[in-house]
Amino acid sequence: MSLANQKIAVYVTGGIAVYKVAGLVRQLIKAGATVQVAMTQSATEFVTPLTFATLTKRPVLTDLFAVDQPDQVAHIHLADWSDLAIVAPATANVLAKLANGLADDFVTTALLATTAPKLIVPAMNEHMWLNPATQRNVQQLVTDGLTVMQPATGFLAEGYNGQGRFPEEAQIVAQATRLLTPQLLKDQVVVVTAGGTTEPLDPVRFIGNRSSGKMGYAVAQVAAMLGAKVILISTRPELAVPAQLERVIYVQTAAELQGAVQAVYDQANIVVMAAAVADFKPVQYAPQKIKKQVNQTDFQLNLTKNPDILAALGQQKTTQFLVGFAAETNDLLSNAQVKLAAKQVDLLVANDVSQTDRGFNADDNEVTLLWADGTTEKLPLTTKVTIATQILTRIAQVQK
Ligand SMILES: Cc1cc2nc3c(=O)[nH]c(=O)nc-3n(C[C@H](O)[C@H](O)[C@H](O)COP(=O)(O)O)c2cc1C
């Protein structure tokens, strides 16, 4: 999931946030895209074209009738060349022009001529944004099939708080990536569990495990990128929530996780159980901190079995595609085969968690896919996002 080899036209219009677009252009290039910038005359009042020309290593297009341009129809060439058009920042003025099909400068003429998906990133004074005329124009653009981001709320250049700020670069890059990604899971409801559960012993202690939640978050991020409505059930509130999720539900214990999954199971098309659920929990919870006694050398902890959430989902399964994860430190494949059959899952993702550069807590993973029909496939060591992409792409294919 990247912008590698994608051709992106960035149309810069005349708002105070123009300087932030330099950072956005750098991120797009870093993600692998080729970027061509065009600016309105107003935009060049804020930042000179030299900044963008230097970042992109391409001359910036500004003048519809430039006589010194070798290409007399540069606006049409840009329109046809680009895989994606981003208007950032989009002024109230350019929103009005686009909503009405005006084409009176390089930027608006190229935008009217392009058939590429269009991502509009408005930024302006709050009252300009909330003005009924602007809102009417935004509505028209959405109706016309353009993607219009909501400006962020925060401290505005005017010196007060309000809605109108240029959104975070990462959010814009995520939206751009989504618009360039085939929507293989469009409107599918994907439920993902992530992180390790914790079972409290007393108000300060718990039994837990080393699962970081990164694999589940990668699955949630990629599923959303592929157009799914993602419900993420997580034990890790400290992790940044991926863009475009439908809902995030935070839980701690296995019982809470089970309750959360059961509540949404009926509406799910795909369920990915990436969380590491504790097999056992303390028989008793001590409401006050357990004290050690004088001269005490041992401590007996009585545990009782937690419900087998995955097996229960396997039994209740109707049309859901159920994915389990098997984290093993030894005999990976034979243990995974047993789990695959016992839990009635459609796909089991087996990972070796005995090494520190993959699996639990690492950014990378190496897994073996075990399908219900008996076929297996090894996915070599790579990032968790790439693993998630490979898994979800294969599920989308078998679901067709
Ligand atoms: C200092 C200054 C800051 C401005 N900031 C914004 C802004 O953030 N958003 C906006 O929509 N217009 C802003 N404007 C108004 C636009 O520059 C003006 O509407 C202009 O005609 C837009 O032209 P363009 O859409 O062709 O780029 C600002 C104007 C000035 C003088």
UniProtKB/TrEMBL annotation:
Q: How is the cofactor bound?
A: Binds 1 FMN per subunit.
Which residues of this UniProt protein bind CTP? D279, K289, P307, D308, I309, L310, F325, K339, K343
Top-rank lineage group of the source organism: Bacteria
Pathway noted in the entry? Cofactor biosynthesis; coenzyme A biosynthesis; CoA from (R)-pantothenate: step 3/5; Cofactor biosynthesis; coenzyme A biosynthesis; CoA from (R)-pantothenate: step 2/5
Cofactor(s) it depends on: FMN; Mg(2+)
Provide one Gene Ontology biological process annotation: pantothenate catabolic process
Question: What keywords were assigned to this record?
Answer: Decarboxylase, Flavoprotein, FMN, Ligase, Lyase, Magnesium, Metal-binding, Multifunctional enzyme
What are the start and end residues of every segment in region (Phosphopantothenate--cysteine ligase)?
A: 190-400
What Enzyme Commission number does this protein have? 4.1.1.36, 6.3.2.5
Q: Which residues form the DNA/pantothenate metabolism flavoprotein C-terminal domain?
A: 185-397
Name of one Pfam family that matches = DFP
GO molecular function terms here?
FMN binding; metal ion binding; phosphopantothenate--cysteine ligase activity; phosphopantothenoylcysteine decarboxylase activity
Q: Write down the InterPro entries for this protein, in alphabetical order.
A: CoaB-like_sf, CoaBC, DNA/pantothenate-metab_flavo_C, Flavin_trans-like, Flavoprotein
Annotated region (Phosphopantothenoylcysteine decarboxylase) at 1-189
Q: Which reaction does it catalyse?
A: N-[(R)-4-phosphopantothenoyl]-L-cysteine + H(+) = (R)-4'-phosphopantetheine + CO2; (R)-4'-phosphopantothenate + L-cysteine + CTP = N-[(R)-4-phosphopantothenoyl]-L-cysteine + CMP + diphosphate + H(+)
Query: What is one GO cellular-component annotation here?
Result: phosphopantothenoylcysteine decarboxylase complex
Which residues are in the Flavoprotein domain?
7-177
Q: Which HAMAP family match?
A: CoaBC (MF_02225)
Q: State what this protein does.
A: Catalyzes two sequential steps in the biosynthesis of coenzyme A. In the first step cysteine is conjugated to 4'-phosphopantothenate to form 4-phosphopantothenoylcysteine. In the second step the latter compound is decarboxylated to form 4'-phosphopantotheine.
Q: Which family does it belong to?
A: In the C-terminal section; belongs to the PPC synthetase family.
Name by which UniProt lists this protein: Coenzyme A biosynthesis bifunctional protein CoaBC
Question: Which organism's genome codes for this protein?
Answer: Latilactobacillus fuchuensis
